[in-house]
Amino acid sequence: MSDNQQECDVAMKKVIYDTDIGIDDAMALLFLHYSPEVELRAIVSGFGNASVENTTRNALYMKDLFQIEAPVYQGAGRPYSVAPDSDYTGEYPDFVHAENGLGGIKILDPLSKKETKNGAQAIVDLVQDEPGEVSIVAVGRMTNLAHALELCPQLPQLVKELVVMGGAFGFNNHNGNVTPVAEANIWGDAPAAKRIFQAGFNISIVGLDVTEETIARPTFFEALRRDGGKAGAFIYAISRYYLNFHYQTRNRSECPVHDSSAVAYLLRPGYYTTVEARVDVVEFGPSKGQTVFDELRESRTRICTAVKAEEVLALYMETLTSGRAVLIAP
User: Fold this and answer.
1) Of these residues, 97, 174, 246, 258, which one is catalytic?
2) Strand 291-295 and strand 272-281: pairing?
3) pTM, 2 dp
4) pLDDT tens-digit profile of 241-257?
């Protein structure tokens, strides 16, 4: 059977990628782009790892560089709970992702343009066009989704599944990375996260409990550079800044695989152990962004508690070094 015949036999996943493109987000975007199981319908940008202007620019730059067909929609530039007429000014983790969000590599001005429709409206329209068929992989703040939910209260029933990279629940002794109790994506817009987690989506949460157990080391990035063509070389280049940050904070040359873990769950949920639970988020105060849960049977929310980390890394490597990835790379 030819590669094309095999790909036709795979049940394609129609995906909206909601992202604040920094280094690990870029890795996850290429994971989605090169997976033969994914039909990427849209990239929706948001603030987080960098300003929304920079994350949108990064999405458009990658769209051009890797010939990604999916349109790019610019989403929220400030938290859900901030009034539109406020003087909100964000602070972004340039010490993690560099000022441009992509490890400080040289970025050319993209030729592609963002769509005129805003990110939240695009999410609603795409899901309404194909109810029950579109999955959302959300690896940044939950702000775009909270605005989309406001536009369309029926959204949780229309989305096939929502996979979130965010939160920490104490499994495997992992609790927070921006405060002792909070993960960055949830902390960055806790009211939006609370709204989404309690809205009734068919949701899987891939938090620090498992992403911190999935570790990429220099040999992983070297293999990508050697065998992954243009995409592998790009990932190697942007990972230099990221590895340096983690070396300074951990005294080890390695980094957790955060956002790509959400893609891995979408593609291979069997690699993960989960519990069904009701999830809440602390919105304000010293514990802002803390995710708490009560286990429930027959809940539509699943929390990842354990992972087959080597299988996840192998799936990423296989996807980025496959014949398909090399052949369609420009």
Assistant:
1) 258
2) antiparallel
3) 0.93
4) 888 887 788 888 889 99
